[in-house]
């Protein structure tokens, strides 16, 4: 079967969704919460319902108390709904026959389980924003899969579905762009746990973006999107994952000697469903051993605390404004840009006496296996970073939020600064 033209299908999707006057072409704001039990991130959609966000997810799906207007299997959006299928989805004959209603096959990003579901019209409730405050409530028309509650296994208790944030045609960024007539791009600022407040997702904007300061509550000194560095944002055929071209890893500003082609074999992906950055064995061992050698004292190491292998006595780690004073871990990107993880993004406190290096070894994969990613950048390392996913320019913008603020410091009240 010939592959559908994605540009044509997106144009049709814009016509299928409700039209929006030019006056409502404003970015769409949603708060992002972190679930303490699962380390997954969620956004509210409407009436108290929450969805797990999945950077690799190609669909918006949820359980349904009632079945809204269904979509025909001959509708063009049905092809978009079936453009990607999770590798774990082994339902026989999935997507091969048209029998009146469109069947989509949403999957649970944690268990990998998928199920047949009806594709339906729905609406999301959000706010527009100017990058500083919420402005006005907006109802966003959308297309979603209406799945069984059995698909919610191992997701947070208050969650009713998953919001895919990939570059796929029925993921949330494309749907917001088509229905609201905004850019196909989004900002993501994931919060650190601890009840400090919600992080932020803003769809349809490249900026501006402001956060309040910790001590004064005043806005940050400037638009944080002006501090972004940019790297290519890539994808692979039949795969909705976001890839970034990492050419080397350095620890303490010293390049780590890795096996030839270790990073290009499998690539480096971004993943919100993984709590901590996972490295394939041939990448993990050189990186963590270089980190351990780079510490100022050799007697800090203590017993491992799963899932972490390299753990240290907290009282011997020097404190700084940006976390513990440990060697920086830097991903050197194509073009020479650097994404650096300082102590606040590389170390996690596991108890009153112990802090561990928050990079873990991938399980169930062999060293150098090109079928496995070399590095999966997890949620903890993305927290308190401003990330700009520009799906039109195919680039990722990234910047560490200044230590005087945090992703949980967006002003969600309607009062102006």
UniProtKB/TrEMBL annotation:
<dbReference type="InterPro" id="IPR021109">
    <property type="entry name" value="Peptidase_aspartic_dom_sf"/>
</dbReference>
<dbReference type="InterPro" id="IPR033121">
    <property type="entry name" value="PEPTIDASE_A1"/>
</dbReference>
<feature type="signal peptide">
    <location>
        <begin position="1"/>
        <end position="25"/>
    </location>
</feature>
<feature type="domain" description="Peptidase A1">
    <location>
        <begin position="37"/>
        <end position="399"/>
    </location>
</feature>
<comment type="similarity">
    <text>Belongs to the peptidase A1 family.</text>
</comment>
<dbReference type="InterPro" id="IPR001461">
    <property type="entry name" value="Aspartic_peptidase_A1"/>
</dbReference>
<dbReference type="GO" id="GO:0006508">
    <property type="term" value="P:proteolysis"/>
</dbReference>
<keyword id="KW-0732">Signal</keyword>
<dbReference type="GO" id="GO:0004190">
    <property type="term" value="F:aspartic-type endopeptidase activity"/>
</dbReference>
<dbReference type="Pfam" id="PF14543">
    <property type="entry name" value="TAXi_N"/>
</dbReference>
<dbReference type="InterPro" id="IPR032861">
    <property type="entry name" value="TAXi_N"/>
</dbReference>
<dbReference type="InterPro" id="IPR033868">
    <property type="entry name" value="Xylanase_inhibitor_I-like"/>
</dbReference>
<dbReference type="InterPro" id="IPR032799">
    <property type="entry name" value="TAXi_C"/>
</dbReference>
<dbReference type="Pfam" id="PF14541">
    <property type="entry name" value="TAXi_C"/>
</dbReference>
<protein>
    <recommendedName>
        <fullName>Peptidase A1 domain-containing protein</fullName>
    </recommendedName>
</protein>
